[in-house]
């Protein structure tokens, strides 16, 4: 089976036993049996179809911003989505591949006098991840899904479908794609015209409000905010700021972040995630829900 997969995707394109620590922001995780970078949308589709045909488990990742990969790695094919097409159309519509980096899209839109994407400033990752998580500016309740008109996906039967916004199930930090098994290929979004000064003012506002975000290798926010509360506040009040397991540490700057301080294992990070959940449950009776994505054998 593996020989056929390599033949289909190219022996010079597939890497064997590739450390996932090199492809995630938290810099932790073991090896993937097979690793393939899809540079265009068509390659993304073909890789998924090839793996399915050979009955090889596969997972698609973007920039690896909110992923925790197991120390045991992934038994199958990891497809890194690096598709990068951006097309600006009349009436402020933008067709964008799911592998486009958020920061690149923000800059490209700003250069054309288009606003709306400021909500993704300091949200690491790709457009696909922003759709999957409905990422955005929680403080202002401005999310990426609000901009979406349509999303093109590869379904589990290998067929390409186009979904309207109303079909995407966007809500706070969620979308239909978290449970549908569909692969996000691209999206059509609508922005608005604005002056350079207006765009810069919105960007500055976001940056100022996000100054409390810690630096260093992390996965961004670990938990969704419970209704009427804040995950970071609850973890702080549970006395866990600065708590360490191995080289993983709950940030002293913002308790909803876990930082890799050097050579943290994924199991160290997971231990802190589990500790935060149990202590907050014990003290406040609140169940924290992760917004990070687990990959591999746990």
UniProtKB/TrEMBL annotation:
InterPro entries: FAD-bd_PCMH, FAD-bd_PCMH-like_sf, FAD-bd_PCMH_sub1, FAD-bd_PCMH_sub2, MurB, MurB_C, MurB_C_sf, Oxid_FAD_bind_N. Its main location: cytoplasm. Pathway: Cell wall biogenesis; peptidoglycan biosynthesis. It catalyses: UDP-N-acetyl-alpha-D-muramate + NADP(+) = UDP-N-acetyl-3-O-(1-carboxyvinyl)-alpha-D-glucosamine + NADPH + H(+). It is found in: Cytoplasm. GO terms for biological process: cell division; cell wall organization; peptidoglycan biosynthetic process; regulation of cell shape. Its cofactor is FAD. Keywords: Cell cycle, Cell division, Cell shape, Cell wall biogenesis/degradation, Cytoplasm, FAD, Flavoprotein, NADP, Oxidoreductase, Peptidoglycan synthesis. Belongs to the MurB family. This is UDP-N-acetylenolpyruvoylglucosamine reductase. It comes from Candidatus Woykebacteria bacterium RBG_13_40_15.
